[in-house]
Amino acid sequence: MTEAPAGAERVLRELEPSVERLLERHLAAARDWLPHQYVPWSAAQDYDGPLRGTAWTPDQSALPQPVRDALVVNLLTEDNLPSYHFEIATRFGRDGAWGTWVHRWTAEEDRHASALRAYVHARRAVDPVSLEELRMAHVATGHHTGLPTLVHTLAYVTVQELATRQAHRNAGAACGDPAGEQLMARIAADENLHMLFYRGLLADALALFPDTVLTALADVLDGFTMPGAAIPGFRARAARIAAAGIYDLNVHLEHVVAPLLRTLKVMSAPGLGPAGRQAQERLGVHVEQLTARAARARELFARMNAGTLSTA
Ligand SMILES: [Fe+2]
Ligand SMILES: [Fe+2]
After folding, report:
1. Ligand 2 centroid from CA 277, angstroms
2. Domain boundaries, the chain
3. CA 38, 42, 45, 50 torsion: positive or negative?
4. Ligand 2 centre from 276 Cα, in Å?
5. pLDDT, average across residues 165-172
6. 162 alpha carbon to ligand 2 midpoint, in Å?
7. Which of 33, 116, 252, 296 has its Cβ near the most Cβ atoms within 10 Å?
8. Residues 6+ apart with CB under 8 A from 305
9. Nearest listed ligand to the Cα of residue 111
10. Which ligand is located closest to the Cα atom of residue 110?
11. CA of residue 194 to ligand 1 center, whole Å
12. Structure letter (DSSP) for residue 271
């Protein structure tokens, strides 16, 4: 039987009990934390300007270049929270359990940019002038997902929270600074709980509207870009971040795409019509192609790191 594409109103109504249940689970699991306790204030000193301190110079940063790149990308991505809030508030609404989630999620996310920025400034990890210029440009551009339906948004945020968790966790692990690692692990733990909320919702949606959900998931994974992709100079930074193994196609495949598809059991989803079966096929092809691209990238980075890459 062919399933009619599920409209937004119906999806909101039928998933409301799931939102209530998952919100309760989230609130029981979430641990409050205090951003100011994670910033190494004793390492900080005044900057030039009104306080007549010391201007930033590149030699002040002890962090490896790819970690600086990751911090800039991750921080600017978090900075665009007003755009993401707009996206989910207009999709999910501000009423009932959906509205409670939208506001609670926004309050939690708001810690991430403020804590990361304080850390970066205290450690003099990156150029603060360039960072502020980039923030102005990036936030003034806003983030437009262009996703066609509510279910596409649900699929996107599930993938994105998982990807962001890995990006923060791996940047922290590579930074060589216990204070930085601790902060980024803390942020990654928040992203993990956000992912669990959305993945739970997507699983319930899959049981209710299998064709609609699989189609949206295939669309989202095929065209997935990180929300920070619009940052000026993103490609060069992303290449250095990938070469250092902080976030590359292998991380994307092994820690984001494969576990998500496995947990949702998309390849054995019951009750599919022609649209769902076609989406399932597209997901299979996507994983195959991603696996091949990830293997090529791994080989390329191994040769680069060994210094044997031919430039011919
Ligand atoms: Fe975040
Ligand atoms: Fe998050």
Report:
1. 31
2. 8-306
3. positive
4. 28
5. 98
6. 8
7. 116
8. 243
9. 1
10. 1
11. 9
12. S
